Each structure stands twice: as C-alpha cells, then as structure tokens.
Amino acid sequence: MSAARRFWAVFVARNKEFVRDRGSLAWNLAFPLLTVFGMAFAFSGKNQEVFKVGVVGEAAALPPGFAATKYVQFVPFESEDAAQTRLRHHQIDLLVKPGRPLEYWINETSPKGYLVERVMLGTDAAVPKPSRGTVSGREIRYVDWLVPGLLAMNMMFSALFGVGYAIVRYRKNGVLKRLKATPLRAVEFLAAQVVSRVVLVLAVFAIVYHGSDLFLHYQRLGSLLNLYLIFALGSACLVSLGLLVAARATSEELAGGLLNLLSWPMMFLSGVWFSLEGAPRPLRLVAEAFPLTHVIDASRAVMTEGATLSQLSSHLAVLTAMTVVFLAVGAWSFRWE
Amino acid sequence: MTAVLEARNLVKRYPGASANAVDGLSLAVREGTCFGLLGPNGAGKTTTVEIMEGVAAPDSGAVLYRGAPIGAAFRERSGIQFQETALQDKLTVRELLTLFGSFYPRVAPPAELIELCDLGEFLDRDSKKLSGGQRQRVLLAIALVNDPDIVFLDEPTTGLDPQARRNFWELVRLIKARGKTLLLTTHYMEEAYALCDEVAIVDRGRVIAQGEPDHLLKKHFDGVTIELPKADYRAPAAPLPGKVVERGGAVEILTSEVDATLAALMASGSALARLQVRPRTLEDLFLELTGRELRE
Questions:
Q1: Of A97, B122, B185, B243, which one has the fewest beta carbons inside 10 Å?
Q2: Strand, helix or coil at B28?
Q3: Rounded distance, CA A314 to CA A301, Å?
Q4: What does the mean pLDDT of chain A come to?
Q5: Class of domain B3-213
Q6: Looking at the complex, does the CB of residue A20 fall below 8 Å from at least one CB of chain B?
Q7: Phi, psi (rounded to 5 degrees) for A21
Q8: Does ipTM come in above 0.85?
Q9: Do the Cβ atoms of B55 and A180 come within 8 Å?
Q10: Contact yes or no for B142/B98 (Cβ under 8 A)
Q11: Domains of chain A (ranges plus CATH)?
Q12: What is the pLDDT of residue B152?
C-alpha cells in the first residue's frame, strides 16, 4: 500500500519532469517523424530498377544465358513457402526452381513480374518449356516493411538513453543519495522509471504511427493491438537494459559509451534497414540476441504478414524473458551512490 | 543525561586511503539539543554524520538511537540535509515537498513547513531557479517533511552570504524550539558558537575536545587574546608572559596576564593604537589543540 504510494509519487514526478523538458520532448517526437517521412520520401521513387528473381534450390543449375541477364538480381531461398510469400507481397518479381524443365511462379498482379517473365522466356530458360505457376497478393511497399523497424529503432534510443542517462545524472548530482535517505526502496524507484518511460514510448509510438499513417496509408495486415503489445513489451525490455547499464555507472561518459556500444550494433544488425535473411549464419545468431531484432521481426510480421498472437509467441516469450533478466540483475546490482 | 543518539567507536577507511577517515570516534547527542561537529575540511565530519544518519556503513563501531542500533525505521524518525544535493529538475518547490512527503507514513502539515521555512514566495518556482539561500531552505523543509525527531544538517550554510546565513541560523533556532534534536557539522566556529549547546571538535577522524562551547573555552583558556598588526609589533627583550603566535598579518599573544603583557609591549616600543583585546574563540581553541588553522 505505502509501496504503491511511493511508486506512484516517483512515477508522477518523473512524468512531469519529462513533459516539462520541452527540448527532449520535442526531440522524442520530431526525430521519429523525421526518420519515417524522410525514409518514405527517399524510397518512394521508382529506384528499384533491378528485377529480383527468387531461386529455390541450386542457383548454379540455372540456365547460364538467363543467369547472365543484366539488371536481374538472383536471391536464394531455402524454402519454397517463404519465397512464395515474398512473391505474393511483390518483394520478389519472379520465383524460379532450376530443373528440367524449369519451374517458375509469377504474381499476376505485378507489372514487373510480367516484364521479367518476358525477359526470361527470351533466353535459354525457355527450352525445354518451363512449367508456369501463379500466385496473387497485394504489394507490400518498402515503407510498410520499413516503418516497424524505424519506430522500433526510435523506441530503442528513447528507452536506452532516456532512462540510462537520467539515472546516471541523478547519481552524479546527489538526487539518488537524497532519495536513498528516505524510506523509498530501490525497486519502487526503478519500477517507476520503467513504467514512466514505457508509457512515454507508447505515447510517442501512437502519435508517430497514426500521424504518419494519415499520409502514408500503411497496409497493416495484422491487428493493431498486437502491434501495441509488441512495442509495450519491447520498450519494457529495452528500458530494463538501460537500467542495467545505469545500475552502477557514475559518469555520463561511461554510461553513454556503453549505451552506444549496445545501440549501434542493434541499429545495424536487427534488420531496421535491410533483412538479414541472406546474411551469414553467425551474424544472424548475434542478431537473435538483440531484443530489437525480436521487436522488429514481430512487428514486421504483424504489418506485412498479418501474424497472429500465437505466431508471435516465440518473439514475445524471448522479450519477456530478457525483460525479467535485465530487471532482476539491474535491481540487484543497483547502487544509489 | 539521556543520549538520544550515540556513536560508539566509529571507524571508517575509504578504499585506497592511507589513514582512517573516522578513527575511533564516539559521541552522544542529548535530546532536544543542538550538537555541533566542528572541524576543518577533511576532518571526517561528513563521514561521521553520514554513518550516524545510517546512509553510510562504518567499518566498525555502532550508532544507537534511543539505545538500539539504528535500522530501517530510523529513516522515518530522522531528517537529513546533505552537504551537496541537487533537486530533481523541472519540479516546483511545492511538488518536491509532495514527492518527498509521499515517501513517509507520517508527515508534517505542509502549510506549517512552508511557513516555518518561509517558502511562500517561491513555492511554485522551478527548483533550478532558486537562490542559494532559498535552496537551503527548501532542502531543510524536505529534511523536515516527515516531522522527524532528529535532524542532520551537514554544513548547511557553506557558500551562503552573511545575510542568508543569519536567516538560516534563525530557522535552526525555531526548529530547536520545537523540541527537535539537531546534529550539525560546520567549519564556521561562529556558527557552532551561535547555534550549538554542545560541540565536538574533530580532527583527523577523532574528537579532540568536546563540551559546551563556553565550558570548553574556560577549560582550555584562562586568558584573552591580545592582537596587534605585525608592523606595529616590536619583540620585547624579556619573554612575554604568554604565547606569541603569528597569524596572517597579525601577532597574537595568548595570555592571562594582561597588565604585564601590555607593560612589556609598551616598554618594547610597539605601537598600541591598533591593539585589540578579545576573548578566546573556538577557532583559537582549534589552533591551540592542533597547531593548525581551522580554515586552511
């Protein structure tokens, strides 16, 4: 009862502090909006001049004349199902399976698919006559694919630095020492920091997502509620990671260095900008260890594949487990001074 | 004499330090009094007071509150003003009082605190925009927010201008008048003299003298200080009946034989126009006991 009251008092105070800090608040809103619109603008042009052809099976077995076609990029796939999903979403233009005869599939609603089919049939791939299959599905634009990653990346920075820096600053200037001298317990203080930041991150997410949706008209195939759930859990996980870093650090420089050390690899290896499906296996394993990877994979699955809660369960379980571990270790190693 | 708070044989050494910061220090604070820890910077005052607050742990020794070792419950009965504390940014004075008040099961009526510490003028101001004196009053109000029995003030007037310092002293007297016990550290001997019923002079982690300020002075000194500018002083041929110390630009003669000293000075040809005779102070006592200045 009194623990809840103390938690609530710190939570309210922290929120006031943040909302009154106009500079940070503006930045927390402006930065994600800028990245989303900037990227949407940058990739809105017809800049994908290259045709993408998915290959299931041995790429070396492709008819050499077709394989040598300029401006065609061949993307290897291990599973035919995954490749067909890509084809349905217009992420590849044609799917081929080398053999005698060659098998191929196109998306009949895709103009690029039509063109690349004509190109292929003009090469040595036309003999012997290949077998043709079709799939259908709406195009997933790059922006629909990209936006979960951008939102997640912004969430990561806000969660890690917002909490980590604030706590280290408070430790340095003695605010934490003053709080230590009251009956306030560390776990109450930390819980208030986490909840305050999660609420803030979700508010920013809502504003940025729905705000940009008005202009960019996202094609979200899955449920909005699931998207919120992923971001709530993801932000709790990353805030806890920020707490863990800030548990003992006494200088902003040290905390800043550690946070950068965590956030930069996550920014590049969690699939914000490009998919890691074709990346070497060790790199993918490293990416699996990042909370951000799970946030992005899960939210992208909701956006572009309409994934259901049960399909998301493994990502959600990993995020929950990481949150629990980070929080427990962070609270255990936390020092007021 | 009932001690409300007692320190027994406190020892504390910081990692890597060559000497103990607190070196077997004991003291007892009586209920309803103002107790002063007086000493130069680095004497171990802050470490001692933080151990007695329960904020730092001693390497050995114990702190007793009403005869029992201090524990978690002591936080609810004590109020603390640290030497250097920032306040949360972006919160007003009123919000800070509410925040800290909500940590305690029992609180002093806010209106009373605001009146006592005279916060009315800047109650809705961002804590960042307060003057030094205003800040100290807010920090004191926060220390009093739980209506504590015992209040710790660690160098509360360091860095304040003389007017703000005197205002703060007035405030401390009002708090004492409410029956609260105070433990104060300072390196201003006039502050200790003005506020404290009892002082302990601390040097190198030890208490080197303890008692009521007047008693202490009487016990160690039975004379006065005769002071004159160095330029005016001519050393007499025969030794003076007292101790001669050079201090800054002045010569101080510590003596109980005023007449004989003055006669000798006159005979030596010293100029006496700027000579002063004054009673001994705690600062003199510190110098006497340690051979060093209080404020180095």
A1: B243
A2: strand
A3: 12
A4: 87
A5: alpha beta
A6: yes
A7: -85, 80
A8: no
A9: yes
A10: no
A11: 2-42+142-333 (no CATH), 51-135 (3.40.190)
A12: 95
| Interface contact flag, A184 B104, Cβ < 8 Å | no
Name the phi and psi angles at A42, rounded to 5. Answer: -60, -35
B136 to chain A, closest Cα gap in Å: 14
What is the CB neighbour count within 10 angstroms for residue A332? Answer: 11
* CB contact at 8 A, B200 and B36: yes
- Find chain B residues with C-beta within 8 A of A12's C-beta: 99
Is the N-terminal amide bond of A101 cis, ω within 30° of 0? yes
- At A271, list the tokens: 């699939």
What CA–CA distance (Å, rounded) separates A178 from B93? 15
CA A55, chain centre distance (Å): 26
Counting Cα atoms < 13 Å in the Cβ hemisphere of A176 gives: 23
Look up tokens 């101001």; give the residue: B125
β-bridge pairing B224-229 and A94-97: unpaired
Interface check for A183 against chain B (CB to CB < 8 A): the answer is yes
Specify whether the CB–CB gap between A33 and A140 falls below 8 A.
no
Low-confidence residues in chain B, pLDDT < 50: 296
Inter-chain residue contact A6 with B102, CB threshold 8 Å: yes
Judged by CB atoms closer than 8 Å, whether chains meet at B103 and A177 is answered as no
Residue with tokens 């030094």: B132
Distance of residue B135 Cα from the nearest chain A Cα, in angstroms: 14
Token duo for residue A127: 């003999």
pLDDT score, position B123:
92
Residue at A298: amino acid letter:
A
Average pLDDT over residues A302-330: 92
Token digits of residue A171 = 């430790």
- Whether B171 and chain A come into contact, CB under 8 Å, resolves to no
Q: What is the pLDDT of residues A43-63, one digit of tens each?
A: 665 555 578 899 998 888 888
Domain boundaries, chain B: 3-213, 222-279
d(CA A19, CA A27): 12
**Helix A252-269 × helix A291-300 angle, to 10°:** 40
User: Is A316 within 8 Å of A230 (Cβ atoms)?
Assistant: yes
Pairing of strands B250-255, B276-279: unpaired
Nearest CB partner across the interface for B88, out of A175, A177, A184: A175
CA angle A255, A256, A259 (to 5 degrees): 85
- The Cα–Cα gap between A255 and B262 comes to 67
Helix ranges (H only) for B17-105 are 45-53, 74-77, 93-101
| Residues B140/B184, Cβ–Cβ less than 8 Å | no
Do B105 and A2 lie within an 8 Å CB cutoff? yes
Tokens standing for residue A74: 């061949």
List, for residues A88-146, the tens digit of each pLDDT value. Answer: 888 888 999 988 788 899 988 788 888 888 888 888 888 788 888 888 777 777 788 88
CA B6 – CA A265 distance, rounded (Å):
55
Verify whether the Cβ–Cβ distance B89 to A181 is below 8 Å.
Answer: no
Contacts of A20 (CB under 8 A, 6+ apart): B90
Interface contact A181-B55, CB threshold 8 A: yes
DSSP category for residue B126: B
Separation CA B100–CA B76 (nearest Å)? 12
Distance in angstroms (rounded) separating the CA atoms of residues A174 and A248 = 14
CA distance A5 to chain B (A): 7
Token code pair at residue A228: 């919120």
